[in-house]
Write a structure and sequence with these properties.
The structure holds two protein chains of two kinds.
Chain A lengths: L12 H23 L2 H20 L9 H21 L7 H10 L4 H9 L9 H22 L8 H28 L22 H17 L12 H22 L7 E2 L6 E2 L9 H23 L9 H29 L13 H4 L11 H9 L5 H16 L15 H13 L2 H17 L5 H12 L12
Antiparallel strand pairs in A: 1-2
Helix pairs in contact in A: 1-2, 1-3, 1-6, 1-14, 2-3, 3-6, 4-6, 4-13, 5-6, 7-8, 13-14, 16-17
Chain B lengths: L3 H19 L4 H14 L17 H5 L5 H17 L8 H40 L1
Classes of the chains: A mainly alpha, B mainly alpha.
Chain lengths: 478, 133
């Protein structure tokens, strides 16, 4: 990317930082490229190459990795983002894409806010393009953020990766627990009222601590992922009789809040206070086990929802059977579909699989919850009248990421892969310019559909099946 | 032109890479990424995550205190599931279910994407042939 045309920029960390962020942009750009038509994606590629050159101009003679160096790299990244934006003018304001864009570069929530405040978007008021730029800058910020923690000038990317593993792991743990806690939000146990205090504690007092409790248990979940929480059960036994009366109050209260979970627990600080059930062992082990089993049954319920046809099934063994069968069938489908793709298009091939670097696949950045797929899916399914269009829109949406490795125009190993790429793209109907143009137009129409213009559906269905490209269609401006 | 088998193999690998990339940070995604890199012959960076805690007793976790057979049945199934989900063998039951849920979602997305791709390509091929005539 930094074609060695000038050696003004010193070989130092700043370059590495920039390399990585530009590489990030390139991946993103190529993802966009597969989204858009082949021609405009070439435009984008050229624009991104210019960004690569820009990196050498922006930072003046700074040599060392410090916060100022980072901000310069980020400043360059901002400019790069603007450049990229110039090529993205024709980009449809697809709300789903904003999510995907955000998802693609692992997000650092706080810096995002700062950057959005300081950003001037040239001429485009679309929220999605804002998100694209922000995600670009956020990824740069993330890199900068990671590095400024270390304060060690690194000389190769290997070290860069190693260093970034540390803080990223903790972030990953954090975010891993988030989807879980989100699903557990409803099942949040109400704080036990009369545990430490008298039985007559008022109801409203439980609400504020409840909010704090959620955060507490979130952090606690992070710290002790997989391990049993420390359970402090102070004065359970003597108070067991006293609590009976209070417990019935507590039960009534809980039923108001969530589905009858009859084991409230309040996690202040480091303890989970678990109220013992009547007639059950109260030692820490069995209570810990019970907490664990609750979690496991929660997860099983989640799986039950995912696997089709599992809701009526009772019994753990049978359900496990179903889950296993389903996973196996999905894997088999992937295999079958890859064979089908190979037959349907004789030119489709991925030559550059070996070019992927280790860091691409084992990256320990912030996790990307799959729930981000659902906005796309719901958007797509609302236009499900013409199944073929839904398929195409969905394919565009999700394949931007899935297949972008093959479309990686800015592969750092050079341009020898470009022919392979073109052959691959040829398979997408670009061999005759007219056909390619036709494809573009329909893409544009179909994507427009995603924004909510219902009247286009009929028009584009005709276009797709009819095989003509009437002048009335919008053409992608280059 | 490469043979059909080779190409479909590569397409499948690309699909798995897509899976990995779209679900970064997940345990199964990292395990799958490692597996793919092994196949490619690229050495990993060696900075694997610390091994997560392994739950020893599956039966306890499920709360099954009853018949031995039932517990054994569940045990074999859980082990089968562990083998299916990439990276599942090191996971305890609770984490295993978590990862399975995420893995299933990712697979579902992947399958529908590939299905749509093949549909799209198929349609384009047909159009190409028609235009050719």
């Amino acid at each position: 990317m930094n074609s060695g045309s000038s050696d003004r920029s010193p070989k130092c960390f700043l370059n590495q930082n920039w390399d990585r962020s530009v590489d990030h942009i390139s991946q993103f750009g190529s993802a966009l490229g597969s989204f858009m038509s082949p021609q405009s994606s070439f435009e984008l590629e050229r624009g991104l190459q210019r960004i690569g050159h820009l990196s050498e101009e922006v930072p003046p003679q700074s040599h060392f990795m410090d916060s100022s160096g980072n901000s310069q790299a980020l400043g360059g990244l901002v400019i790069a983002g603007n450049l990229a934006l110039a090529h993205l003018d024709q980009f449809p304001a697809d709300p789903g894409f904003a999510e995907r864009a955000a998802r693609f570069s692992s997000f650092d929530g706080q810096s995002y806010g700062w950057f959005s405040g300081h950003f001037e978007l040239p001429g485009s008021g679309k929220p999605s393009t804002a998100a694209i730029i922000q995600s670009l800058t956020a990824s740069g910020l993330q890199i900068g953020h990671l590095e400024s923690n270390r304060q060690i000038p690194v000389s190769n990317e290997q070290q860069l990766k190693m260093n970034s593993a540390g803080p990223a792991i903790s972030r990953e743990e954090m975010s891993l627990s988030d989807p879980i806690s989100a699903s557990n939000g409803k099942k949040r146990k109400a704080p036990s009222k009369s545990k430490e205090k008298d039985a007559a504690s008022p109801k409203p007092s439980t609400d504020p601590p409840k909010v704090a409790d959620e955060e507490d248990s979130d952090t606690k979940r992070c710290r002790s992922s997989g391990k049993i929480h420390e359970i402090g059960i102070d004065n359970v036994k003597p108070k067991l009789e006293q609590n009976d009366g209070a417990r019935s109050n507590g039960n009534a209260e809980q039923k108001q809040r969530k589905a009858g979970n009859d084991k409230p627990s309040e996690p202040p600080k480091d303890y989970i206070h678990v109220r013992a059930r009547r007639g059950q062992a109260t030692d820490s082990h069995s209570l810990a086990e019970r907490v664990r089993r609750e979690k496991i049954s929660q997860r099983m319920k989640l799986l039950q929802d995912l696997v089709p046809g599992c809701s009526k099934v009772t019994g753990k063994a049978v359900m496990l059977d179903e889950i296993i069968n389903y996973v196996q069938s999905l894997q088999r489908q992937v295999e079958f579909l890859s064979m089908k793709l190979a037959t349907v298009n004789p030119q489709l091939d991925f030559d550059n699989l070996a070019n992927l670097r280790a860091k691409d696949l084992i990256q320990i950045g912030g996790p990307v919850p799959n729930s981000a797929y659902s906005p796309e899916m719901s958007m797509v399914s609302s236009y499900a009248d013409v199944p073929q269009q839904k398929d195409i829109l969905h394919s565009i949406a999700t394949n931007a990421m899935d297949f972008h490795c093959s479309m990686n125009m800015l592969d750092s190993t050079g341009h020898q892969d470009l022919n392979a790429h073109q052959a691959c793209l040829g398979g997408f109907g670009d061999s005759s310019s007219q056909l390619g143009f036709f494809w573009e137009d329909d893409l544009q129409n179909i994507v427009q559909m995603g924004i909510g213009q219902d009247q286009e559906i009929v028009a584009s269905s005709h276009n797709f099946h009819g095989g003509t490209s009437p002048a009335a269609q919008m053409k992608i401006e280059l | 032109n490469a043979s059909l088998a080779e190409r479909s193999q590569r397409i499948k690998m690309a699909a798995e890479m897509g899976l990995v990339r779209s679900s970064r940070g997940r345990h199964w995604s990292r395990a799958l990424g490692r597996r793919l890199l092994q196949r490619e012959g690229i050495t990993g960076c060696g900075c694997k995550n610390a091994a997560l805690s392994t739950s020893s007793n599956v039966f306890e976790d499920l709360g099954v205190r009853e018949i031995e057979d039932e517990a054994a049945e569940i045990g074999t199934r859980v082990r089968a599931l562990q083998r299916l989900v990439p990276g599942g063998e090191e996971l305890g039951l609770e984490r295993l279910f978590e990862e399975t849920a995420d893995y299933i979602e990712a697979l579902q997305g992947q399958v529908s994407a590939m299905r749509a791709m093949s549909c799209l390509l198929d349609g384009l091929e047909r159009e190409k042939r028609m235009m050719g005539k």
